[in-house]
Write a structure and sequence with these properties.
Blueprint lengths: L2 H15 L4 H16 L19 H12 L14 H4 L6 H8 L2
Helix pairs in contact: 1-2, 1-3
Organism: Harpegnathos saltator
GO molecular function: ATP binding; ATP hydrolysis activity
Family: Belongs to the ClpA/ClpB family. Torsin subfamily.
């Protein structure tokens, strides 16, 4: 399945399963199209979702992984960080940054 079809599939998944987040839906699809279609970036695509609990941030991240990767969230190319769980201490921000860069 090529990338174009995967993004179309994700677009359908978001339409069918995510409500009241049209701006996020469009931003996600546009970011993926921009990353995969307009250039051959040597950098990984990083997406960061912000908002109050229960708005679907993790759900959408999982849908992206399921649409793009055969193994979904189990793919070696998918990394998920939850700020509250993975980076809980303000005083350790510099340490977290070092770990993320390695």
């Amino acid at each position: 399945k090529n990338v174009c079809n995967k993004i179309i599939g994700l677009d359908y998944m978001l339409t069918a399963n995510v409500y009241g987040q049209q701006i996020a839906h469009e931003a996600i699809i546009n970011a993926l199209r921009g990353h995969f279609y307009t250039h051959n970036s040597p950098k990984a695509l990083v997406m960061s979702f912000h908002g109050t609990p229960g708005t679907g941030k993790n759900y959408v991240a999982q849908m992206i992984a399921m649409a793009l990767y055969k193994k979904g969230i189990q793919s070696q190319y998918y990394y998920f960080f939850n700020g509250r769980n993975d980076f809980p201490l303000q005083r350790k921000l510099d340490d977290y940054k070092v770990c993320l860069n390695h």
